[in-house]
Amino acid sequence: MFKLTSLNLNGIRSATSKGLEDWLAQSRPDCICVQELKAQAADISGRFDELSGLKGYFHFAEKKGYSGVGIYTRHEPSAVVTGFGSGEFDAEGRYVELRFDSPARAAIPKLSIISAYFPSGSSGEERQAAKFRFLAEFYPYLLALKKNRDFVLCGDINIAHQEIDLKNFKGNKKNSGFLPQEREWMTELLSSHSQVAMQSVKEDVDEANEAADQLLTIAPVIAPVIAPPSGGGMVDVYRLLQPTSTDAAYTWWSNRGQAYAKNVGWRLDYQLATPAFAALASSETIYKKQRFSDHAPITVDYNFNM
Fold it and tell me: What crossing angle do the helices spanning 180-190 and 205-214 adopt, rounded to 10°?
């Protein structure tokens, strides 16, 4: 059994001060993918190189106290990849990949575990435009990777894909994280061909047109996002196991008001896997008994041995 966890830390120093290490010692994942380290190499060294016996590998942002991703693992990787070749977004520390390749494994000889942190566009048009640029760059990278190896991408995607993925879907159709273009990008990544993707967001055509009118300043970067050449064929592992779950599916809650107490949440944290690896998923857990950040950790057990 291979136990894989993902968690947006909202700061590694903050999360560890709230009991993260004790929880990891109890839950014992094989790997935990983390996002928003909000720390640099100097902050990690000597204190957070390891957590509960798991060795860490990181991709830091150039800007201090910003972004940053990591993977803590019990298993020695055969290779480590930091960044996905983007001049703009690699500087923000958004991608680290551990490769666990073994020719002796007949079923899945090449496997990557990826921790990724997608940009948020909630602060305004400039960051929303950056988010669209990220999506446009990242999509072909994932498709190229999928041709050569199996992988599971864990992370804070900053997109709620379907209406069942957030509490207040009616009031958020014009907000970042639930824009029609973002949802269509996800649909396309998870579909086998473009026709399926277009059909699945048909109900949002009017909203998409209206949103496009409101976002004229970023129109040049919308087109490549919503019209990729073909479906990505990836699998949303949580939805594979829990296709209709609603309130129990949320992984993020705003710190405003009583969002957590009232469970007014969003499902922003995913494990997206190639079909062969996704087929090995057996169970999932979103841990909510303890809060380490404004996100909850999502764990999936896979019938797989390193």
Answer: 130
